[in-house]
Amino acid sequence: MKLVDHEIVKQKMKTRIYKNVVFKGIFLLATLFGLLVLGILLYRVISQGAGYLDWQFLNSLPSRKPEEAGIYTALNGTIWLMFVVAPVSLILGVGTAIYLEEYAKKNRFTTFIQINISNLAGVPSIVFGLLGLTIFVRALALGTSVLSAGLTMSLLILPVIIVAAQEAVRAVPKQLREASYGMGATKWQTIVRVVMPAAIPGILTGAILALSRAIGETAPLVVLGLPLFLAFLPNSFLDTLTVLPMQIYNWTSRPQVEFQALAAAAILVLLVLLIVMNSIAVIIRNKFQKRM
């Protein structure tokens, strides 16, 4: 009596190999299509904006004349915004992740909190703009300031940072914690000296991706009422600002072809900022990985 029918096995293997080839081809076509669209977008942005990208463009104030317009105020406003978003979101996000993973008891309440944090990561950004408008602009009377915009964008990316930090902390082997406890370290010393250094690469990856989203978001800032045209720089966190996405939105809404090219040049500057941020994250992550 045969326990294995080789003919049936061969037939099933052929079917599985055929399905594997088909799905592999589908996934490859999907990848190539995405790369093609990205390549077309990059080509159009570079071809339109490269000619306008010079020092005068970076160092000029916005103007109603395309030949005199620049992104000086928008670029400075973006930097001011990051001075609020980065520390607020990192401190709150990483602190929340450490509490949920290391201190909070595993019960229905913490499960409910984690489910809602994960759900908040998928909420449309305009909802956070409405929340910021209600709380920071109107209730706290901060107006369209750097502080209100920064706190709103911090709320936007906070769920992403919390989830990424939780995954990074959870991925630290238990043997490292037990070895630290065995050496007489307290729980807080173990977290600071053992868990955090091991989790920093994963935390940085999620944080940089979240900050990149904050730099490129426009909808929450439009809801807050940030000006599309601003001819002065903020001097404090309570001053009004405008940022690169708002400037790009302003120029793309104008009918003149020159402003469309200026928007493409501003997009190139924004891409360079994102590449620099991600490069810094990769360098820091590799540095900590070598130490471990």
UniProtKB/TrEMBL annotation:
Q: Which NCBIfam families match?
A: 3a0107s02c (TIGR00974)
Q: Which SUPFAM superfamilies match?
A: MetI-like (SSF161098)
Q: What is this protein called?
A: Phosphate transport system permease protein PstA
User: Where does this polypeptide localize?
Assistant: Cell membrane
**Which residue ranges run through the membrane?**
21-46, 79-100, 120-141, 190-212, 218-238, 259-284
Q: How does it sit in the membrane?
A: Multi-pass membrane protein
Q: From which organism does this entry originate?
A: Niallia oryzisoli
Q: Which family does it belong to?
A: Belongs to the binding-protein-dependent transport system permease family. CysTW subfamily.
